[in-house]
Amino acid sequence: MRAWPAPDVPTLSVTGPQVSLHDTATGSRVTPVPEGAARLYVCGITPYDATHLGHAATYVGFDLLNRAWRNAGHEVVYVQNVTDVDDPLLERAAKVNIDWVELAERETQLFRDDMTALRVLPPAHYVGAVESIPLVIDLVQRLQAAGSVYRVEDDLYFSVTADPAFGQESGLDRAAMLEIFPERGGDPDRPGKKDPLDCVVWRGEREGEPAWDSPFGRGRPGWHVECTAIAQEHLGAAFDVQAGGSDLVFPHHEMCAGHAQVADPSAPFAKTYVHAGMVGYDGAKMSKSRGNLVFVSALRNSDVDPMAIRMVLLRHHYRTDWEWLDGELWEAVDTLEQWRRALSLGAGAPSGPVVAEVLAALADDLDAPRALRAVDAWVAATLGTDGLADTSDPDAALAVHAVLDAALGLDL
Question: Rounded to an integer, what distance in angstroms lies between the CA atom of residue 336 and that of residue 354?
Fold first, then answer.
């Protein structure tokens, strides 16, 4: 599957600091030290509806990590999946009377367009669930060989007790897991399961649903095993960062880790787990079930500057839960006008301090709000109270424009 086109990103004349991140698994700050290229996996969309701002906040948030690593001198291998066959997609396709393949392709293209507009760097490997089925089959066979897979009717389940480390990624106790599991796609009450928390790795063929041949019978992959197989294929074991929204901590990322660690007990699935907060609207988390969604494409089609959308997202730390307010968007439009005015002057307040502060802020657990405050201060100093530029740095605008794009993804 093809990704979206890569934007041209300037190369900075200075090197950024090494990046520290909040690790969900330990609850502490860590500084990943990549061995060779930095390896990043961010869980992708299930393409049954357009990209809403909750999605956008996650992908812009981890775009900051991609950029911060690059500015620190690392090559980055970034992998993202597309769950282009799954229950929500099939249900949506049936509801609107459209072929599921057509729906997946249409919404995936819309996602690409949104990511392009927001200047999110594309993954090196953008992999659909359908094209990864051979990888899934191989992984399920390895899990079978480890004795961790059993059959319930036509479905294959993974036994979570096969992973001694199960629960360490999320830090949840069993009671909390049992409460969350059915809310996020699990089936704890299914008869025949050995443990209520066991998850499907291969779903046997159902009438009217797509299915593929396998040694286990015709069917399709489970959700968690898809990401595990793709990550292992393109990043190997113990890759640097597994990332996604905080709603993926359990069960998705816990199950992914379990699959990988049973298939290869010699190494953890990922070294660090990093999660983005949830975005709300009208008093609740954005969700398709509630219908309280704000779509990136709708804003773009209303002639809203995509850089203003990105700026609103950057005003909130990636790990925080926050609520989208339309007023923030119009404030961002006004802010961009001021920033562009300052950049158009060429000369301005000294650029060295603001460049250093932006890079330091993003190395500090991707603290984009702190970085934006530094740029706000530079703009204020450049324009001055009387609207005249401080000409102490004749090339200030070039340096600030470069760091805005390279570090924050804002092309002004």
Answer: 17
What's the Cα-to-Cα distance from 364 to each of 64, 69, 152, 338, rounded to whole Å? 11, 12, 47, 26
**Structure tokens of 406?**
């390279």
Cis amide bond preceding 251, omega within 30: yes
Q: What is the torsional sign of CA 127, 132, 138, 144?
A: positive
Per-residue pLDDT at 385: 52
Contacts of 50 (CB under 8 A, 6+ apart): 107, 110, 111, 114, 295, 296, 297, 298
- In the numeric block, the tokens 């926050």 are attached to 322
Is the separation of the CB atoms in 81 and 263 below 8 Å? no
Residue 344 CB-density burial (10 A; 0-12 exposed, 13-18 middle, 19+ buried): exposed
Give pLDDT tens digits for 337-394: 999 999 999 999 999 999 999 999 999 999 999 999 999 999 999 998 544 544 578 8
Distance of alpha carbon 13 from alpha carbon 346, whole angstroms: 18
Give the whole-angstrom CA distance, residue 269 versus residue 271: 7
Sequence-ordered list of residues with C-beta below 8 angstroms from that of 78, at least 6 positions apart, any chain: 40, 41, 42, 66, 121, 122, 123, 124, 125
Give pLDDT < 50 ranges for the chain. 386-387, 389-390
In this structure, how many other beta carbons lie within 10 angstroms of the beta carbon of residue 32? 23
Strand runs labelled E in 154-269 = 155-158, 199-204, 219-221, 239-245
Q: Is the dihedral of CA 265, 183, 317, 359 positive or negative?
A: positive
What length does the chain have? 412
Domains of the chain (ranges, CATH numbers): 21-280 (3.40.50.620), 304-408 (1.20.120.640)
Rounded Cα–Cα distance for residues 221 and 211 (Å): 9
Q: What is the pLDDT of residues 33-75, one digit of tens each?
A: 999 999 999 999 999 988 899 999 999 999 999 999 999 999 9
* Helix and strand counts by DSSP (H, E) for the chain: 13, 14
